[in-house]
Every structure is written in structure tokens, then in C-alpha cells.
Amino acid sequence: MAELDQVDPFAHATVAVQDVHVRYRVPSTDAAERRRHTNPISRAARAVLGNDPKVLVRALSGISFVARSGEQIGLVGQNGSGKSTLLRIIAGLENPAKGKVLAESTPVLIGVNAALVPDLSGEENIRLGCLAMGLSPEQAEAAIPEVKELAGLGKSIFLPMKTYSSGMGARLRFAIATAANPHILLIDEALATGDAAFRERSEARMQGLRDGAGTVFLVSHAAQTIEETCTRAIWLNHGRLVLDGPAEDVALRYRKWAWAVAKDKPDEARTIIERAFAEREQTYVHVEEPKAPRQYNARHVRPQSAARRQDKGKS
Ligand SMILES: Nc1ncnc2c1ncn2[C@@H]1O[C@H](COP(=O)(O)OP(=O)(O)OP(=O)(O)O)[C@@H](O)[C@H]1O
Asked: What are the boundaries of the region Disordered (predicted)?
């Protein structure tokens, strides 16, 4: 423990998320919104263009944390709490309205980084996906057997991907994404679709990535999956970070909260969230921009050195 205390927590940081805010302006058919927009100009514009008033959706509000190598971080929260948005922001697929995300290497978001083609077979898609992730043709060829084994699709691997069930597609995408040994792997519910044997193989694969000092982010609604596979968990609610801590602790509280919501006990649910908010340690992330080296040009340097030469001559 003493040794751990001496470790600089920022020395092994793989992802730093600094006060990230994400907002969307979306059209709403809510009649109350229509009434609120009483401005005659906007009403006239709506009458002409026929479009609905826009409302602001705050998908993420002030999210800050630092992920370190060797961590598997579970993201939990109810539908619409911002989990997928956070993964997209970390992957660099969207820019936050405010805040910053820094990653020490390119994060791989399963299913997006690998551009798969429905008309090609699973096997051909493995080759294509590996090349799309930056592997050389030789490396892609060498990776195929391992990816096939991890996906575990049997003879279906030779059939067009458009004939796969959603679970089969998810297994193949997961297997392809891990082939490039990404240092930062982002997984959105991929494991929920697999059977027990696939789960076991994929958990072993993720353990391998973590052992290689990588960081894995896993989105799941199931507190049990987070408890069993993650070292740390982040609980999001309406785009805000409720709790960030050891997976077992966060999963337990999230489960209690979900139970209170399911049993229609809003006061109990609110108390659990408020207590978690009050107890959580606030993380402030400060990212230092590297300073640009000072630029000197010849005109500035010469007079000074000339003066120095004169001084030396005098002494
Ligand atoms: N492209 C978008 N345009 C407008 N609103 C969006 C967009 N993407 C997400 N949102 C909104 O942002 C909020 C967070 O959505 P997000 O998909 O991140 O939630 P989630 O926690 O992943 O949900 P789920 O568990 O259902 O997958 C939701 O209110 C959603 O409606």
C-alpha cells in the first residue's frame, strides 16, 4: 500500500477527461415548448418553414476523470444517462461543447473504427477491419486465425455478414477490434449479446489487453457484468457523474438505486443519488498545454551578442 501511495497517479494516465460538456439542440413536438416560443418572428418562421422549436439536451455536464493503464472501467447508468456519448467523445468522434479529452494513443471504439461491409464474408471483413485499423497486410493475415477463434462463429465466418444475427455481428466486431491490440479499447454493450462461452473468451482477451497495460472502457446496464469484469466503475445520471470508484462499491449502490426506481420509490432513489453525490471525491483535471518554444530571430539576437562581445573586450 505504501508503494502504491508513492506512485504518481498521472504517470500512467491513458485518458484524461477534463470538465466535458456535450449539448444537442433537437426539435421538439412538445406543445408546451411551442407555447413558450411566443416570439412572433420565430412563430412566423415556424409557420413558413414548418419546423418544430428546438430544445437543449444536456447529454454530459462537467465530466472529469483520469483513466490509468491496467484499468477496466465500467460505465453504468439508466437509458439516456450519457454513457454512449462519453464513449464517442473519448473516441474523438464528437467534439465537446466545453472541456477537453486527451488520450495517450488512438482509442478504438468497437464497431466504428472497423469499417465492415455487409456483402463480404466474416473472414473477408476480418482482413478489411484489420487493414482499416492500421495493420499491415502481413499482420492482418497473421491475426485472422486468432480473430476467428475469438469470434467463434464456426462455418458462418465464410457467409456474408449481412446474414448474421445482431449478436453474431457484435461478436465479430469485438474480435476484430481487439486484433490490433489497442491500448485504449471502448466497448458499448458488445458482451451482453454473447453466450457464456463467448463471454469467457472475451473476458480473457480483455484481461490480456489490461495485462499489456491497456485501458478498457465497458458500457453496461448490468451491474453484475460491471462487478464481475471491471476494476473501477463510473455511474452517470442525466449526464452528470454520480460516483467514480471501485466497481463493486459503485455497482452495489447503482443496483440499490435501480431497485428503488423499479419499485416506484422515488424518495429512496433520490436519497441514494444525493448521498453518492455528497460522498464522491471531486476530481479536478488540469491539462497543461505544452509551451511553444520561444522564437528568436537573427535581428533580435545579433545586437545583444554584439554588445556582449564588446563587454567581454572591455573586461
Ligand atoms: N445525436 C444526438 N442528437 C440529439 N440528442 C442526442 C444525440 N445523441 C444522444 N443524444 C441524447 O443525449 C442523451 C444521452 O444519450 P446516450 O446515448 O449517451 O445515453 P446512454 O446512457 O448511452 O443511453 P442507453 O443506455 O439507452 O444506450 C440522451 O438524452 C439522448 O437523447
From this structure: 288-315
**Best residue among 20, 22, 24 to mutate for probing ligand 1, ranked by most atoms within 8 Å of CB:** 24
CA distances from 22 to 19, 57, 75, 120, 257 (A): 10, 9, 17, 36, 25
Residue 220 in contact with ligand 1 by CB distance below 6 A: no
75 DSSP assignment: E
* pLDDT tens-digit readout, 79-89: 899 999 999 99
Report how far ligand 1's centroid is from the alpha carbon of 90 (Å): 15
Residue with cell 443496483: 255
Q: Is the pLDDT of residue 9 over 70?
A: no
Ligand 1 centroid distance, CA of 238 (Å) = 10
ipTM score assigned to the predicted complex: 0.96
3-state percent breakdown (helix, strand, coil) of the chain, nearest 5: 50, 20, 30
**What's this model's pTM, rounded to 2 decimal places?**
0.77
Alpha-carbon span 44 to 54, nearest angstrom:
15
At a CB cut-off of 8 Å and minimum separation 6, what does 162 contact? 118, 119
Cβ contacts of residue 250 below 8 Å, gap of 6+?
A: 74, 76, 226, 232, 233, 234, 235, 243, 244
